[in-house]
Write a structure and sequence with these properties.
CATH class of the largest domain: Alpha Beta
Helix content: 40-55%
Distance between the termini: 96 Å
Strand order of the largest sheet: 2-1-3-4-8-7
Shape: globular
Order of helices and strands: HHHHHHHHHEHEEHEHHEEHEE
Number of helices: 14
CATH architecture of the largest domain: 3-Layer(aba) Sandwich
Number of strands: 8
CATH superfamily of the largest domain: Vaccinia Virus protein VP39
Largest sheet: 6 strands, mixed
Radius of gyration: 25 Å
Number of domains: 2
CATH topology of the largest domain: Rossmann fold
């Protein structure tokens, strides 16, 4: 039979346990709310500030102009916050112990950004080969011509203060591109990627002329391409096995494939290349993006991967030309490959008509391939 002190002790322990449970529940709710706020902040940053790193405006030159000080300060602050929030979301875990590591990583990102502003420390994976951007923005130019003066006035009136400062400092060409960017509430990324890929295609002498037939493997660009080039026949297909089985041989003049090869195993990558060669006409083009050596440098600089994994990817690319990790079972995951691998595996079937290392957001490589005859 329990004594009165024992009963009181037991009651006290149970009370403490209940208090701890309530505190744990509160912490879990707080954690969920923090992640939700981070996601909302990231979404807002993506909606309003994608032009910081993606739009084809020379921000370095632009920010040196008179009147750009407010925009310059906003750009620097937004980069720090955006990268920190992205890191917070991308590494969210259920375990409470991970929270302190995420906080440390966020602080490290901010510290790295400050260090970069003052010259920064050496990164063993940094590259001296600076990616070159596109020479033009053909899709944006076409879409801008579809805007009326009233549309442009409405866009300008709705700009946030930092956007307005950037708008005021921009020249005529830059304003045209910004107008399309700010008008494209749901498709800014698609317009950016379509600009890159169509511009690279044009550099090979290929013109998107009326009557041609194109397919967007992945379906992320087809709406923008159809809006800019309605005189062509466009198809959108998911990058899954058998997606093009209902199309006959030589059905298409051009294939766009954004990030399909950045997700494919070596076996799937070669299988897709064989399928592209089947459906493309002899004069056609395949435009694709994938991770390469510049993606290794970007992953290290922005701390998107752990240093040990970055080193493993770099070693695999040097040794084999390809690195792949699956998401579950199968041929879908994350992939990196080099131009050497592509040439070694497909050189007799494809010719590299254009190659832009790190041409997509200073990250993914952009290729334009031409099918070669069997001879």
């Amino acid at each position: 039979m329990a004594t009165e002190p024992e009963i009181k002790t037991r009651a006290g322990v149970e009370g403490e346990l209940e208090a701890l449970r309530r505190r744990l529940d509160a912490l879990e709710r707080e954690h969920v709310e923090q992640v939700a706020r981070a996601n909302a902040a990231i979404a807002a940053a993506q909606d309003k500030s994608y032009w910081l790193d993606r739009w084809q405006v020379d921000l370095n030159q632009l920010m040196r102009r008179r009147g750009a000080s407010e925009a310059r300060a906003a750009v620097r602050a937004m980069r720090v916050v955006y990268r920190a929030l992205y890191d917070l979301r991308s590494r969210a875990r259920e375990e409470a112990g991970v929270l302190s590591r995420r906080v440390h990583r966020v602080r490290q990102v901010v510290a790295d950004e400050r260090a970069a502003a003052h010259g920064g420390a050496g990164d063993p994976f940094a590259r001296g080969l600076a990616p070159a951007g596109p020479t033009g923005t053909p899709v944006s130019d076409i879409l801008y011509r579809q805007l009326t003066s009233e549309d442009v006035a409405s866009i300008e009136a709705a700009l946030a203060p930092a956007e307005a400062a950037l708008w005021d400092a921009a020249g005529p060409t830059e304003r045209r591109r910004l107008a399309v960017a700010f008008a494209a509430q749901r498709e800014p990324d698609s317009i950016y990627h379509a600009d890159l890929m169509v511009d690279a295609l044009g550099q090979t002498g290929f013109e998107l002329a009326p009557g041609l037939v194109g397919v967007d493997l992945g379906g992320r660009l087809v709406a923008v391409l159809a809006a800019a080039y309605p005189e062509l026949e466009w198809h959108g297909r998911d990058p899954v096995p058998g997606a093009l089985d209902d199309h006959p041989d030589q059905a298409f003049d051009v294939v766009f494939a954004l990030s399909v090869w950045s997700r494919s195993s070596p076996r799937a990558a070669l299988s897709w290349l064989d399928e592209m060669r089947r459906v493309l006409r002899p004069t056609g083009r395949l435009v694709l993006t994938t991770h390469g050596l510049q993606s290794v440098a970007r992953a290290s600089a922005d701390r998107l991967r752990e240093p040990e994994e970055v080193a493993a990817i770099e070693r695999a690319l040097y040794r084999d030309g390809y690195w792949f990790t699956a998401e579950g079972d199968g041929d879908w995951g994350t992939a990196f490959f080099t131009p050497e691998w592509l040439l070694a595996r497909t050189g007799r079937r494809w010719r590299i008509a254009a190659f832009h290392p790190g041409g997509v957001e200073d990250d993914q490589d952009l290729y334009v391939l031409e099918p070669q005859s069997d001879g």
